[in-house]
Amino acid sequence: MTSNAPPWPRKTRELHNHHFDSTISNDFRFRPDDIVIGTYAKSGTTWMQQIVGQLIFAGAEDVNVPELSPWLDLRVPPKEETLPAVEAQTHRRFLKTHLPVDALVFSPEAKYIYVGRDGRDVVWSMYNHHARANVEWYRALNEAPGRVGEAIAPPPASIRQYFHDWLDRDGHPFWPFWENIRSWWEVRNLPNVLLVHYADLKADMPGEIARIAELLGTAVEPGRWPAILDHCSFDYMKRNAARSAPLGGILWDGGAETFIYKGTNGRWRDVLSADESEEYERMANEALGYEAAYWLANGMRADRRQVA
User: Fold this and answer.
1) CA angle at 273 for the pair 265 and 117, rounded to the nearest 5°
2) Range of the domain at 268
3) DSSP label at residue 303
4) Backbone torsions φ then ψ of 254, nearest 5 degrees
5) Residue 1: is it exposed, middle or buried by C-beta count within 10 angstroms (0-12/13-18/19+)?
6) Do the Cβ atoms of 117 and 266 come closer than 8 Å?
7) Distance between CA atoms of residues 288 and 283, nearest Å
8) What is the mean pLDDT of residues 290-302?
9) What positions does the domain Sulfotransferase occupy (predicted)?
C-alpha cells in the first residue's frame, strides 16, 4: 500500500559555531500548535516575530517579542536553561531559528514560516548589526561554554570588503547562506510550511499577514486588524524598539534603536559595481537554480517591489 504522506524532512547533521548549538532540537518537545520562524539572519526575523506575536495576542500593545519568542538554537543561554524556559511557556509558542532544515528536528504538526531576502540586502543589514555590536556581545558569544570553532571578530571598516568576505566564504563570519535558502526552498510545498519574502511584506503587508494568519489558523476579529497592522509597521517597531531587540538592545552601541535600524532594501546599489552585483547573481543561480534565485531576489510580487 502506497502512502500519500509527504516526505517529511529528517535531521541529518548538527551545526555548531559561535552562535549555534543545533543539538537543542534533539531534546525539544513539540506541541501540536507550535510555530517556528526560520530565516537566514537579518532577513526580517524580528518583523515576522512581531507579526506572529500580534496575531497570537490579537493586536495587544505590550507583546515583548524577545521574551515570548526565543531563538531556540542560540547557544547563549545554554540549552539547559533555554529548554525549561520554553517548556514553561503557556501561550501558543512561536520560536525562532536560523538553522537550515536538515539541521532541525522537523514536526509535521508545527507550522513553519520562512522569510527570505536578497543576500545583498542581508549583508547591508548584517553589517550594521555586526559593526554596532559592543564588547558584551563579543563576550557573550566568544566566551560561551562549549563554543565550537573560531571566535567572531569585529568587521572590517569597508562594507564592500565585508560583502566580498561574506560572498567568497559563503556567509563568513556567520554561517553558510546558500544551503540555508536551498533547504527551505526545497520544503516550500509541504502543507505546514509558508515562504514569505521581505520585499513582499514591504509591498503588501496586510496581504502577507493574511496569508500568515491562514497558515496559522488564527481567527482575528475584524476590529483588531487596525491595531495589528499598526503594531507591525516599521515606525511602530522603531518607536518601541526595546520590546523588539534582544535584552532591550544592551548588546549594541546605540541600544535597541540600532537593532531596529532602517528596514530598507537596495542600499547596496550605491556601493557595488555592476560586475560585483552580477557575480552575486551568478552565484545565486548556480547555488539555488533560477526559480529559487529569482524568488530570493524579487519575491513573488516582483512587479510591486519597493526599493528604498
Assistant:
1) 25
2) 24-303
3) G
4) 95, -5
5) exposed
6) no
7) 8
8) 89
9) 32-288
Residue at 15 is within a domain: no
pLDDT tens digit string along 226-250? Answer: 999 999 999 898 888 777 777 667 8
Sheet holding 111-116, edge to edge: 94-97, 35-39, 111-116, 193-197
**Number of domains within the chain:** 1
What are the φ/ψ torsions at residue 8 (nearest 5 degrees)?
-65, 140
CATH number, position 140: 3.40.50.300
Distances (CA, A) of 84 to 14, 80, 89, 126, 183: 21, 7, 9, 30, 29
CA distance to 74, 133, 175, 199, per residue, from 153 (Å): 18, 10, 14, 30
Could you tell me if residue 168 is inside a domain? yes
For residue 1, is it within any domain?
Answer: no
Q: What is the pLDDT of residues 155-167, one digit of tens each?
A: 999 999 999 999 9
Quote the CA–CA distance of 75 and 293 in Å, as a whole number. 31
Please name the residue that has the C-alpha cell 528596514.
263
**Selection from 10, 6, 194 nearest residue 102 by Cα:** 10
What pLDDT is attached to residue 25? 93
For residue range 182-210, what is the model confidence (pLDDT) as tens digits?
A: 999 999 999 999 999 999 999 999 999 99
Q: How far apart are CA 284 and CA 286, in angstroms?
A: 5
Contacts 24+ apart (CB under 8 A), 221-229: 221/58, 224/58, 224/59, 225/59, 226/59, 227/54, 227/58, 227/59, 227/61, 228/54, 228/55, 228/58, 228/59, 229/205
Question: CB under 8 Å to 83, separation ≥6 — which residues?
Answer: 24, 27, 28
Longest dimension (CA), the chain: 61
Q: Which of 75, 74, 68, 84 is nearest to 27 (CA)?
A: 84
Q: Has residue 5 been placed in a domain?
A: no
User: How many other β-carbons are positioned within 10 Å of the β-carbon of residue 133?
Assistant: 20
